[in-house]
Amino acid sequence: MPRIHPPRTPKSHSPAPVTTAAPASVLPRSVRPPFPYRLGKRHPRLDPRTLQFAAYLKPAKLAAAPVALDYSSKVAAWGMMANDRIGDCTFAAAGHLIEQWTTYGQGPEVVPSDKQIVAAYAAITGYDPVTGAHDDGAVELDVLNYWRTKGIARNKIFGYAAVELQNHSQVQDSVFLFSNCYIGIALPLSAQSQTVWSVPPGGPTGDGAPGSWGGHAVPIVGYTARDLTVVTWGATKQMTWQFLDTYCDEAYAVLGPQWINRATNTAPSGFDLAALEADLKQI
After folding, report:
1. Looking only at Cα atoms, what is the longest distance across the chain?
2. Mean pLDDT, the chain, integer
3. What pLDDT shows up at residue 34?
4. Quick one: pLDDT at residue 106?
């Protein structure tokens, strides 16, 4: 396991009201392009209660993030978590982080079952595993709030905080401190045929237009100066930084229990855990 200071902790808040907006990021079955896997992230919800990652960083005490970092190679096999057949990517991404945290943190490795992930997905969306009704995807904030208060696969997070879009330093800090950055991307159709997700030559128009395929949730689990590593559909995948800047529409640093030193009640040096705990009590 890479040697890092105890992780910094994101802020979190009470569950936001469920949106009634149409799941535009989940394409209707009648027009969904042929592809062996599913998407399922609905449009981002703006909530003024969302805590900001930058508010808890202490630059004077924060060590510089490494130029490259990988928190994926020790995981033996990433589970599909039912995202090949239903639009539960927001929960599959959470399951992948549980798998990662228990591998790199305080083992043994825990691989959430498809049944556990589907049960959590059904709990906030009304999805019916028997009939397949209401498979309309989920809002990331709803997933994060449910994960913090109810838990997914018997695992709860301590909290989370929003990472600024197109802020590469914050993305790196999130991965450095907590091993992840949980993001939402408005995938273009052009991504279907790419080995490495990148902005197509014609730019973000036509098949390269943001959201022309649909919304998807993935965790960033590593990066280099050239690209980032995410987990999706039971495997790791690379994306360029430009792809992230062009298509990412929400991002969160998520603090799992494996990254808090409970003996000293501290997170990684440079992250203000005490301030986060105080803020959580106000929400």
Report:
1. 55
2. 86
3. 56
4. 66
Q: Report CA 273 to chain centroid distance, whole Å.
A: 21
Residues 12/148, Cβ–Cβ less than 8 Å: yes
Task: Kindly state whether residue 10 falls inside one of the protein's structural domains.
Answer: no
162 lies in some domain: yes
Predicted TM-score (pTM) of this structure? 0.85
pLDDT at residue 5 in the model: 42
> What one-character-per-residue DSSP string does 206-272 give?
GGGSTTSSEEEEEEEEEE-SSEEEEEETTEEEEEEHHHHHHHEEEEEEEE-GGGSBTTTTB-STTB-
Q: Which domain holds residue 120?
A: 53-179+250-282
| Distance between CA atoms of residues 58 and 62, nearest Å | 6
Give one word for 151, left, alpha or beta, with left for phi > 0 and alpha for psi -120 to 50.
left
CB 7 within 8 A of CB 260: yes
pLDDT digits (tens, 9 = 90+) for 228-248: 999 999 999 999 999 999 999
pLDDT of residue 32: 44
What domain count does the chain have?
1
**Beta-carbon neighbour count of residue 113 at 10 Å?**
14
The answer to whether residue 17 is domain-embedded is no
Query: Per-residue pLDDT for 283 more than 80?
Result: no
**122 class by beta-carbon count within 10 Å (0-12 exposed, 13-18 middle, 19+ buried):** middle
CA–CA separation, 148 and 74 (whole Å): 26
Q: Is 23 exposed, middle or buried (0-12, 13-18, 19+ CB in 10 A)?
A: buried
In a domain, 160, yes or no: yes
- 248-255 and 227-232: which strand pairing? unpaired
DSSP state of 41: B
